[in-house]
Specification:
mainly alpha; 128 residues; binds zinc ion; single chain
């Protein structure tokens, strides 16, 4: 493994691809052995990447509601830049949330085309 790390890594990748269930079990066992350390690592990753966390949370929320579509953290960032970091409704510059043009509850999708940046106040005021 030391002599040829590339080859070893490729071999491990092949094994993971061929044994997905075992790989998941190993991951769970590793998590059980090092729960505290891994929890801290994951929390640090979440703190360092709030956009990715938000995009993931939004995706799962939409899936629970049975909506189709999803968008990436990059697509959201792009949209915020297009709106000059301002709320679509009141124009305030500040932390923005993801508002659905057509609410998920009324059959709106979770594609980026249905998303608008809104400040917390405007997003909370609109029923959705
Ligand atoms: Zn607003």
């Amino acid at each position: 493994m030391k002599r040829n790390p590339e080859k070893a890594r490729a071999g491990m990748q092949r094994w993971r691809a061929a044994h997905p269930a075992e790989h998941r079990a190993q991951g769970r066992a590793r998590y059980a052995r090092h729960t505290d350390r891994l929890k801290a690592q994951i929390a640090a990753y979440h703190r360092a990447h709030p956009d990715i966390v938000r995009a993931k949370r939004e995706k799962h929320r939409a899936l629970r509601k049975g909506a189709i579509g999803f968008f990436t953290a990059e697509e959201w960032q792009q949209l915020v830049i297009e709106y000059d970091h301002a709320c679509n409704y009141c124009g305030v510059i500040g932390p923005l949330e993801q508002d659905h043009r057509v609410p998920l509850a009324r059959g709106g999708t979770n594609w980026i085309e249905n998303i608008l940046p809104a400040c917390r106040r405007c997003n909370a005021r609109k029923p959705c």
